[in-house]
Amino acid sequence: MAALTAADAAFEATGNFSDCHSKVEFFLSASGLKKMDTFSNSDAFCVVYINGIEIGRTEVVYDSQTPRFTTQFQIDYFFEEKQDVLIVCYDEDKKGSADLRHHELQGEIRCSMAELMCADGTSVTKQITKRGRDGNHGSLTLHAEEMQMCSEHVSFQISGKKLVNKDGMFGRSDPFFTIKRSREDGSWIPVYKSVHIMNNLSPTWPGDMVSVQQLANGDMHRPLRIEVWDYESDGKHDAMGMVETSLAEMVECPQLAVFETKKGGKKKAAGHLKVIQANVFKQHTFLDYIRGGAANNAWELNMVVGIDFTGSNGNPAQPGTLHYCNLQGGGGAPPNPYEQTIMGLASVLEQYDSDQQLPCYGFGARGPDRKVSHCFPLNGNPQNPYVNGVQGVMDAYHTALTQWGLSGPTNFAQIIGAAASMSTRHVQQGKKVYTILLIITDGAITDMQATKNAIVAAANLPLSLLIVGVGNEQFEAMTELDGDEGQGLHNSQGVKTPRDIVQFVRFNDFATAAPGRLAKEALHELPGQMLKYFKDHQINPPPVQAYAAPADGGGGGGAAAQVIEVSAEEAAMGALGAQVLQAHIA
Hints:
With 586 residues, the protein is an alpha+beta fold. The chain contains 12 helices and 28 strands. The two termini are 48 Å apart.
């Protein structure tokens, strides 16, 4: 295994990164893209990879050879590590498909995070190459900025009044607006785009909610530019005017004058924008819900483990197979991928479970009765499948390997149903428990539609699904289940999942990385998934109980400590993994 970097060692020891680590966001824009369609301009989007791992995709900008993408990419920048960036640009051919084979390759650029962060204005422009060859493929530009983290969000709604008409005497414009924020070098980066309203010079756009970080990088006074455009289906939108403002001004000033800039720099009045409402508020954080543990009536995390016992894993008695482990002791066999995943994830999540009782299941195995089971308790007790802590999971796993024969096929629906049943009981009993089902598997599932049905149903429960793929399969079906791309999951009746609850990672992508990195990648979407559940179900975090010192300084004969209820905003947070967090009152 590769040696730990300083940042990795600090992360594993404390749960925090070193001072050499920063959060960075970057945006993409392109120029001069090659026209891929005969009768129209390109419908471009980009896929971003860091060290060979996909971290996200932009939106599709239709009918444009010079797209400016509004999607933000937020990554961890490590001064002491080499981080290679690959941006691949595509022309969308099959609308909504997450399968890159359904789209036409435009080309790619490569750079490093160090190159980007050290560039003038933290912007890098590279000529696009296609399959290693230069040519007239256009260019891509990366614009980076260090993030100023904040938890504030803004809900806003804007309307227009007597905007200028760009569609001539017999038509009316179809206005939409974009918001750009200023950068330190004086350039402007698009961070928001509204929908367009057809044939209306006094439109009222739908309200929306975004983070202050996204709009203004946490700065209420950061200059913003609102540009109004007349929508054209060919992507050649006509400018209708603009206004420069800030979030602070939008909150305080209900009306903003719009101006067109004519030749010679002359400005002409072009109507008004009215800020119907703009309210800044603190969004509850993941820690607001879990801080203080069970003693504070906070939410706890309950991990359910599901292990793939199908025959494609190979003979567990043979070294080099995915389930091979040294059950006789004495050393010699390193932990197999299943063991490494269990130790890496369960050791993190058990900190947030007060009783550390973890239910464990297997699937795809043949029992002593020669029947294949797609959901059996590893400890052999269907009435009580719980084991104690990480070591209990490991012991039950090792025992099951000696009692169950590997078989198949690979079905997920039953084990998802078992976890959903547990979560349902917790809800019915009024328990504040968020269930996390960890499935470790080596291959493609065979009950895809049943699995989709189970996921859509489970999305209404306090439950998330982590899938770790071990072995050398491509795992295309797992990528489909992960709702980060495309149009989301639908069940067999066409009902769309109300939220994304699936995160998939490949074990091999982190096989030589620091152990903490697998857990970090697998768990990084979990806080957002939990917050979406709490928001959808209008669940507020518990108040924090802070303890004030006795008036006499805490001497033996003093009065008992006074319990004071304070808001989450007033309570200072201690260590991330602490079971009880001490709040300080000014």
